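Colleagues,

For the teaching module next term, I've prepared a clean inverse folding example: a structure given as tokens, and then the sequence designed for it. I'd like students to try predicting residues themselves before seeing the answer, so please don't circulate the second half yet.
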């Protein structure tokens, strides 16, 4: 069990020891992933940016993701979403619209601090504080892959082992500290899994800006 997201990210960074990366960029999925990403970027001497994806909530079960939508509007549905397909078209369209509006709100906040980083030709590390259904990570990977990185690496402290196969298929490498068989939720592996608010994530991103961008 990790004390908090920062400790988990320090342990994760050790897995990159002596690893050669090409102009590395850490892409964090807001908001919890920004804490992980800020530590990784600092430890690896990498640039920090964010990539936006939001889970699509199951009807009547807002904590359960049936899929995710990325910042470019593409929808990924988990295999488990088949149970909801009878009402999929209307429900998912409404949920997609809602989550895209939230992505737009966050993009306005985050992009006011820093413009989107260049991905093409770089070692790109996509991170979050953990992977449960994998939907938001897969949606984020779709965004990054479309921009032609040199390599696409997923780095997370903990993940559901059931979803890692699909994550590996969509990335060049996966670095994960824990993939326990008894996985229920990401928070069970953290002593402190307090919600990360916009203000904290924005400050972490601001602090990671190169000096010339903060002058």
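(Answer key — instructors only)
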């Amino acid at each position: 069990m990790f004390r908090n997201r920062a400790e988990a990210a320090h342990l994760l960074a050790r897995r990159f020891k002596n690893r050669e990366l090409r102009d590395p960029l850490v892409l964090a999925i807001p908001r919890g992933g920004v804490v992980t990403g800020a530590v990784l970027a600092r430890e690896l001497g990498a640039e920090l940016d964010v990539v936006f994806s939001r889970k699509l909530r199951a009807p009547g079960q807002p904590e359960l993701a049936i899929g995710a939508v990325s910042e470019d509007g593409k929808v990924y549905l988990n295999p488990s979403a088949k149970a909801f397909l009878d009402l999929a078209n209307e429900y998912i369209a409404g949920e997609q619209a809602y989550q895209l509006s939230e992505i737009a709100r966050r993009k306005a906040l985050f992009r006011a601090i820093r413009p989107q980083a260049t991905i093409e030709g770089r070692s790109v590390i996509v991170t979050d504080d953990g992977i449960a259904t994998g939907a938001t990570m897969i949606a984020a990977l779709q965004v990054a892959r479309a921009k032609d990185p040199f390599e696409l690496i997923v780095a997370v402290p903990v993940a559901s082992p059931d979803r890692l196969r699909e994550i590996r298929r969509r990335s060049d490498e996966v670095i994960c500290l824990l993939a326990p068989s008894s996985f229920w939720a990401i928070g069970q592996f953290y002593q402190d899994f307090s919600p990360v608010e916009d203000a904290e994530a924005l400050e972490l991103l601001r602090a990671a800006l190169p000096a010339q961008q903060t002058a």
